[in-house]
Structure prediction request, 242 residues.
Amino acid sequence: MELDKQHILITGAASGIGKAIALMLAEKGANLLLLDINYTNLDNVHKYVGDNCPACKTCFSEKCDIRDEKQVKKTVKKFLKNCGKIDVLVNNAGILDYGKLHKQDPKKWKDVIDTNLYGTFLCSRYVLPNMVKRKRGHIINISSVYGKSASPDSSAYCASKFGIRGMSQSLQQEVGEYNIKVSIVHPSTTRTNLFKGTPFKPNKNTALVPKDIARAVYSAITMREGSTISELDVIPLKDPYK
Prediction:
């Protein structure tokens, strides 16, 4: 699959894993459609791509709160008007609220579900009709190893990631007839700002780095036409599930 012919939408592209995915795919010549709620950081990524990734011929960026249906619908419509198609959707945006369930703020708990799970649904919901019409496309959902085996003090995060896995497996069965791929990537603990403000600190010697997940996404995108990656765990060699 030639990436210079692909239009790839990435959510949460302003930092961390999303930024790493955007930069790697830009270097490979993909046309990028970038979303994030933090437009200042997103604009910095956009400018970096423009200045340092000549293989990327097209890069659009848009501030969007993926919890808001109207914003998602409007943004996807705008991208489709500009590009005509979206070949790949990478649902990466995610947040974490850390703490014991009986002490957590219900609003913050709901924000995690709304961002991680509902946001993934909304983006998929409004991108899919274009893929179904063209009978081709690929949705890649960034979940977590904690969406397969839960950890303490992160009930909303684990619930959202378990939900992403279930939704993705259901979607795989719905859209295969339209030649649409659905892949789930499960990273282990990764050195990003996700844990900022929490007592948990990723081990600098063993934790993954964002580029590890970007490589996994690139591998999924570049599988041959008749094959796909259904689920992929990305783990370090040492302490793989910590």
